[in-house]
């Protein structure tokens, strides 16, 4: 095979295996900075949401926090697709991509469901779904470097 | 007037003047922490959105960033209502509340319009509205302490 067909073949394998593609030649710093913007968003909004439930912040904002968490979770799924190690991410993010991707998709789906429940039924309806939706720690334990 | 009717009268004046009410006896640290969570969200998402426009991050996420900016702007309006000075906010936030509130309402309305335009027409349609929607600097110059 010539180089082009080798590339095409490896690309086809990657696509079939559901592996992330690093087709774009991005600056690694940009990729890591972008991921951090999104993960920080999730952290800030998660803390803010907890505050509304603990009576430390206006309860009326609870629903708005679940909405941001759902949208930011969708952003995160995209942000990690390009394989650029570093920035607090363990190499396993990409070495075990199918598991990581599955967890990120679940986070996006579960927070979307949480936001829908919160909008329709408020905090009382949404609260029982919080622990199963916000799986931050389980994923961080596996895929984030210890600080 | 006795104390109670004095309080009721001052409350009525405050309501009529559109001044913020500090009815809840919140912990000042909680109030400031909460504001910071939301302002940091706006900062992170604004930077992430810029990255998608500069080719430094996946363009497909642009619309999602405008959505978060719109929702977080609504959160911010609520977060500043309780008068607790500090945390980088100038006292003018509450001394000139009608102007501050007007600016925050404009931010919420303009980012909501931006998100709608982005969803319907993508980045090309939304980009001309960016400068007038994201009035961060104008408000920071007036109401945020210099770092």
Q: Can you give a write-up of this model?
A:
Two copies of one chain form a homodimer. With 147 residues, chain A is an all-alpha fold. Chain A has one domain (27-143): Cytochrome c/b562 (Four Helix Bundle (Hemerythrin (Met), subunit A)). Helix content of chain A is 71%, strand content 0%. Chain A has seven helices and no strands. The first copy, chain A, has helices at 3-16, 28-53, 62-79, 92-95, 97-126, 130-133, 136-143. In chain A, helix 2 packs antiparallel against helix 3. The radius of gyration of chain A is 18 Å and the shape is elongated. Chain A binds chain B through residues 26-27, 30-31, 33-34, 37-38, 40-41, 44-45, 47-48, 51, 56-58, 60-61, 64-65, 67-68, 71-72, 74-75, 78-79, 81, and chain B through 26-27, 30-31, 33-34, 37-38, 40-41, 44-45, 47-48, 51, 56-58, 60-61, 64-65, 67-68, 71-72, 74-75, 78-79, 81.
Which outline of chain A best applies? elongated
Structural domains of chain A: how many: 1
Sequence stretches where pLDDT stays below 50 over 5 or more residues of chain A: 1-23
Could you describe the largest sheet of chain A, including whether it forms a barrel? none
Helix content percent band of chain A: over 70%
CATH architecture of chain A: Up-down Bundle
Structural class of chain A: mainly alpha
How far do the termini of chain A sit from each other?
46 Å
Number of helices of chain A: 7
| Beta fraction of chain A | under 5%
**From the alpha-carbon coordinates, what is the Rg of chain A to the nearest angstrom?**
18 Å
């Amino acid at each position: 095979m010539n180089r082009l067909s080798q590339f095409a073949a490896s690309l086809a394998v990657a696509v079939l295996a559901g592996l992330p593609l690093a087709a774009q030649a991005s600056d690694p710093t940009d990729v890591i900075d972008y991921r951090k913007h999104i993960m920080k968003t999730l952290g800030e909004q998660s803390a803010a949401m907890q505050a509304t439930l603990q009576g430390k912040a206006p309860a009326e904002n609870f629903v708005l926090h679940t909405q941001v968490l759902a949208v930011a979770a969708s952003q995160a799924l995209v942000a990690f697709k390009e394989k650029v190690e570093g920035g607090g991410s363990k190499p396993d993010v990409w070495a075990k991509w199918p598991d990581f991707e599955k967890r990120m998709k679940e986070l996006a789906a579960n927070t979307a469901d949480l936001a829908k429940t919160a909008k329709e039924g408020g905090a009382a309806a949404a609260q029982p779904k919080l622990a199963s939706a916000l799986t931050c720690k389980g994923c961080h334990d596996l895929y984030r470097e210890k600080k």
